[in-house]
Every structure is written in C-alpha cells, then in structure tokens.
Amino acid sequence: MTTEQRYEEAKKIYAGIGVDTDQALETLRHIPISMHCWQGDDVLGFDQDGPLSGGIQTTGDYPGRARTPEELMQDIDKAMSLIPGKHKLNLHASYGIFEDGEIADRDALEPKHFKKWVEFAKKHGIGLDFNPTFFSHPKAEPFTLSSPDEEIRQFWIRHGQACLRISQYFAEELGKPCVMNIWIPDGYKDIPADRLGPRARFKDSLDQILSIPYDKSKVYVCLESKVFGIGKESYTVGSSEFCLEYAAKNGIISLMDNGHYHPTEVVSDKIPSLLLFQDKLALHVTRSVRWDSDHVVLFDDETKEIAKEIVRNDAIGRIFLALDFFDASINRIVAWVVGMRNMQKALLYALLSPNQRLKELQDSEDFTDLMVEQEELKLYPFGDVWNYFCSRCGVPERGEWMKEVRTYEKEVLLQRK
Ligand code: RNT
Ligand code: ZN
C-alpha cells in the first residue's frame, strides 16, 4: 500500500470517532516551533572561547560540532530540510557574527551583528526569536541581573536593553514577531543569608531593561524561571513564583521549561492554570532525566500531555513553543530532527484525539469508558497519518531521513577536525 492509501484508510478509522484527519494536518502545518540554534554547537556561541557556564551543562563529545556561523547555518539548513513545515529559529545573543576582527561586548551588541542571521532567516522565510545571554562571560560569574556589584548589574541591564533592540530589528526585518526570553542563572550553592535582596535587585533590573521604548506588538518578552542549577542548588533568584508574579504584574509572558521544576511536578498541569489568567504563555520543551539534563525531546507521555493541554484548550495561537535541549553525545542534527519531529507528533496526537468526547466522559464521571477510549486511541493508525503529513510536506517519511543525516555526517561533520 502507498502512503496515500494508508492515509485514506486511517482517515476512515479516525472519522469513526469523529476526528477529521485532514483538518488536523492543516492545523499542524501552521504551528511553528522555535528551533534552538544552540543544539548545534553545545551552547558555546561565537563571542567567547571559554566553557559553557551558568549552571547548565552539555555532556558528550560526538564529532561534528559547528564551530563557526557558517557551519552552524549549514547544519540548521540540513536539519530544517528534514523537518515538516515552516518553523522559527531561536538565537542567543552569544551567536552574534563579527566581521573584520571587530568585537562588541554583550552590552554593546547591535542589530548589525545579527544581520547574517536575518539574511539566513529571509532565505528560509522564517522568523527569529531571541535570548539575551547572561552566562558564559567573565562578568556573569556568579551574578548578573541580581548582582550586588552595581557596575556588573548595570552591564547586564545594558545587555538586556541591547537585546530588546535586536529583537525588534528581527521582527521588523522579517515581518514576524520576535519572542525574547530572559533567563538568568543567578543563584546560590548553599543556604542564602538573604533571599529577598537578590530578587529585589533582579526585579529592579528587569524594570530598567523594560523601561526603554520597544514595540510590544513586535517583541514578546518572556521570563523563564528555574528551581536550581549546577552550583546553584540551594536558591535561584528567578524562582517560579518570582517569574510568574513579575510577568503577571508587568504585562510580559511567563515561560515554563519543563526541566525547571521538582521531578514530580509537570508543566502539562501548569498550562491550563496559566491559560485562565494569562493571554499568552511560552514553553521550552525539553526532557529532564532525573535533573534538568536537557535530553532530546521524545514522543513520550509528558510531551504528549503538554501538547494535549495546548490543543484541547484551543490555545495554539496563545502559546509560543520552543525547544531547549543540548546533547553532545549524539549526532547533533539528529538531536534537532528527532526533537522537532517529536514535538510535532505530540501535537498531531493531540489533534487526532476526540477531545470533546473525552471531556464529556470526564464530566459524566464515566471513568471506565474514559480510560478504555484513551487506551484504545494509542493503537489507532497514528503513524499512517504522520507519514502522510511528512510526504505532503516534502520531507522523508519514517526513518528515511536518517540516511540523509548519515551521508551528511560522512561528507561534512566528520571532516570537521
Ligand atoms: C537553562 C534554561 C535556558 C537555557 C538556554 C540556553 O536552564 O533552560 O533556557 O537552556 O537559554
Ligand atoms: Zn530553557
């Protein structure tokens, strides 16, 4: 049977439970996911030679890390050619491109340092998202926007402001809003003597960053919280409560990274609560294994639950979806492709569920049927719909894409010595 024939069969089976597969695919085609540039080079960036800092860590030494902007762009090109649909690219400020030996410190970054990325985005017809980089820098250890050293704190405030200008430049050049996410690693290894002071300074720093004029219809500022980092086990300045309250009071957007909570807490359960109070919401989808390990996103239960909360609450247009992981122990192109395709599969799985019917079963307290129907759904011909989607989007079906990565690995990645 051809992919089309399989799809036609699957379509009938799904129609039997009131699910329109054509409609689901049409919706999926228009859900952009922001692909993080930093999987390609182990989060090192181009503006420094030092290691990754900020209490985050990549592990592994798989060959082929992108070492230059050209290599990173080439790798992103490859990955995007294997992912169905049009997405966005998520950049960090540390990925500025300097020409003719010029360098600009983080507080002096300008749109021109990202001109090549804009050209790259234009070539792909995609939008860019942005992140100030408050780590991997001599002035970032140990504190940035919460620093008790006023000079250091001001340096990072200027960085945040510079990033707002760059974000607006992206939005204007590309005609697509730019999501700018603020995350700081600031925290303490051991029990703090003052928990309030650092947060008060962080709050003031954010106020100062956001005090410069910027177009709120073009730049969506987000704030990402975190429960702990390596070497910051006892306290983080940007805790969940801090970030939620700050975002709510100041009209910016909360960003939840599902690696940033206690291990039995799930972001899927937090999404509907925020949806009731916030217009928009941002996510970093990742996979934490025992800690915020940033493994590649799989088609696993929590990713599916996250997607369900987005889809069945009609929140597709209210959520900024981005991925955030960095695995250096496997082929980095594969990491991107698997993560992106899995996020899309999770969305498709949610789109192919009879959500209204399941809600009704819950409300009528018919928990037996609810369980059975959800379990039966798992064996519906989901793969046939997914494969058809891939072929319609002009990307390889099933694991066929892997052959292309292997060829690329041999011809390009392994040549990087
Ligand atoms: C760190 C945060 C943050 C970073 C990226 C590189 O724990 O998740 O989002 O991973 O900014
Ligand atoms: Zn994150």
UniProtKB/TrEMBL annotation:
<dbReference type="GO" id="GO:0019301">
    <property type="term" value="P:rhamnose catabolic process"/>
</dbReference>
<dbReference type="GO" id="GO:0008740">
    <property type="term" value="F:L-rhamnose isomerase activity"/>
</dbReference>
<keyword id="KW-0464">Manganese</keyword>
<dbReference type="InterPro" id="IPR050337">
    <property type="entry name" value="L-rhamnose_isomerase"/>
</dbReference>
<dbReference type="InterPro" id="IPR009308">
    <property type="entry name" value="Rhamnose_isomerase"/>
</dbReference>
<keyword id="KW-0413">Isomerase</keyword>
<dbReference type="Pfam" id="PF06134">
    <property type="entry name" value="RhaA"/>
</dbReference>
<feature type="binding site">
    <location>
        <position position="292"/>
    </location>
    <ligand>
        <name>Mn(2+)</name>
    </ligand>
</feature>
<keyword id="KW-0963">Cytoplasm</keyword>
<dbReference type="GO" id="GO:0030145">
    <property type="term" value="F:manganese ion binding"/>
</dbReference>
<dbReference type="GO" id="GO:0005737">
    <property type="term" value="C:cytoplasm"/>
</dbReference>
<keyword id="KW-0479">Metal-binding</keyword>
<feature type="binding site">
    <location>
        <position position="294"/>
    </location>
    <ligand>
        <name>Mn(2+)</name>
    </ligand>
</feature>
<comment type="function">
    <text>Catalyzes the interconversion of L-rhamnose and L-rhamnulose.</text>
</comment>
<dbReference type="InterPro" id="IPR036237">
    <property type="entry name" value="Xyl_isomerase-like_sf"/>
</dbReference>
<dbReference type="GO" id="GO:0019324">
    <property type="term" value="P:L-lyxose metabolic process"/>
</dbReference>
<comment type="pathway">
    <text>Carbohydrate degradation; L-rhamnose degradation; glycerone phosphate from L-rhamnose: step 1/3.</text>
</comment>
<feature type="binding site">
    <location>
        <position position="260"/>
    </location>
    <ligand>
        <name>Mn(2+)</name>
    </ligand>
</feature>
<comment type="similarity">
    <text>Belongs to the rhamnose isomerase family.</text>
</comment>
<protein>
    <recommendedName>
        <fullName>L-rhamnose isomerase</fullName>
        <ecNumber>5.3.1.14</ecNumber>
    </recommendedName>
</protein>
<keyword id="KW-0684">Rhamnose metabolism</keyword>
